[in-house]
Amino acid sequence: MLRSFDYVRGSHDAPTSEAARAWAGEAQRSFLEGYAGGRDIDTAALAAYQVDKAIYEVVYEIRNRPNWAHIPLEAVHDEARRVALHPPGHDKGEN
User: Fold this and answer.
1) How far apart are CA 7 and CA 58, in angstroms?
2) In sequence order, what are the residues at sequence separation of 6 or more whose Cβ sits closer than 8 angstroms to the Cβ of residue 41?
3) How far is C-alpha 58 from the geometric centre of its chain's CA atoms?
4) How many structural domains does the chain have?
């Protein structure tokens, strides 16, 4: 379901705009809050799963709907940028 919000964003007139990114991010957060029901979520595992799914989608879209490949590619790019800016363990002083 979380990846579906990126497909909605990708169909937007300006999918890389701040407004489109903000909408998708808020939709994903709201969904997770409702789904988790107050339980903690392993965000590292969730991020890894989402990237794995997005990479699978890149291959699928290239084979079946090449005009849509930009949607999962943008998700992979976003996650790579996020990790580059905030490496795992960086805030905790880990290497």
Assistant:
1) 12
2) 32
3) 13
4) 1
**Residue corresponding to tokens 């409702």:** 34
Domain span at 30: 2-92
- For CA atoms 19, 20, 23, 25, the dihedral sign is negative
* Per-residue tens of pLDDT for the chain, all 95 residues: 999 999 998 887 787 788 988 999 999 999 999 999 989 999 889 989 999 999 999 999 999 999 999 999 999 998 899 888 887 766 554 44
Token duo for residue 53: 């799914």
What is each CA distance from 12 to 1, 23, 48, 86, in whole angstroms?
Answer: 18, 11, 25, 28
